[in-house]
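re the bet — no i am not wrong, look at it urself. input seq straight from the record:
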Amino acid sequence: MLYRLLSGDFPRSRVLTAILLLLFLGLLCAPFVFPGIKALNVAAKVLIFVVLVASFDLLLGYTGIVSFAHTMFFGIGAYGIAIATSRLGPTWGALALGMLGALGLSLLLSLAVGLFSLRVRAIFFAMITLAVAAAFQTLASQLSDFTGGEDGLTFKIPELLSPSFELFEDELLGVLIDGKIILYYLLFAVATALVLALLRIVNSPFGRVLQAIRENEFRAEAIGYRVVIYRTLSSVLSALFACAAGCMLALWLRYNGPDTSLSFEIMMDVLLIVVIGGMGTMYGAVIGAVLFLVAQSYLQDLLRIGSEAAASLPWLAALLSPDRWLLWLGLLFVLSVYYFPTGVVGRLRTARVR
């Protein structure tokens, strides 16, 4: 049963297996183990980014395509939910319509980008996708009648998923089960299903062809594979999964704007997470997302504690100032790339082979 769920792609390292199991249990029990709104928000953001990063790794790690338009599909998913629910009301039908509309638009746009641009090589394709993403972000900011412009859209969701809903009158294990907790477990189930689906894709014959194209595109073409078709299909599948992640983000925040889902900073975060976790490994998306988002969310708190503890040494206290958290985050990234050039997953698997 486990073999089928993981599509035969086991971690192949005891340490990696233990880490993944610990992370899975931690996310599963997050509302009960890590109380507080901030901790729950970080856990939910991890689930969303695991899907987003895994979908991007299908492009970069498995197919060898560098695209900067990935957050465009992420934003389409978020705007699909936001526009549908703000206009049709907080109903399940509005959610379904918004999601289907976003998936349909993502399908058409990714197909167009794939057919018109995937014949372009390397850096030129990356520049085209960057231009398309920038144009879409500008369009979302200017169409204020539909997207809310720079202010974005705030909307309501079905009562079952809203914080005001209480499933039980009494607390369960010290936690009140409200709509926010129900929504978190809905995101957990969706994220788990989508990651397992991506594992199935990359370990199928289709996924093997994508890896062959990544290793040597000309050889894959020579033995009879239509490289453009496979690259286009990879682009479409990646866009659909990114769109689903955007829907998850909009549901959790109950708000969406250009900076929330379309900013270039999100694209840079995704690239960093892929490199930290390990390209060409779906498990790398999980580990990379957890490491990066936890560091991003709690590094300032740790630096504040360190700065207060080093108050007797002014130079050290200034160095550990919470205002310098980006400096320390960059340093951590440089160290992770230096000591884990193939990512955390690649390093652990290599150590296991040795």
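see?? The radius of gyration is 21 Å. told u. also The chain has one domain: 2-353. so pay up
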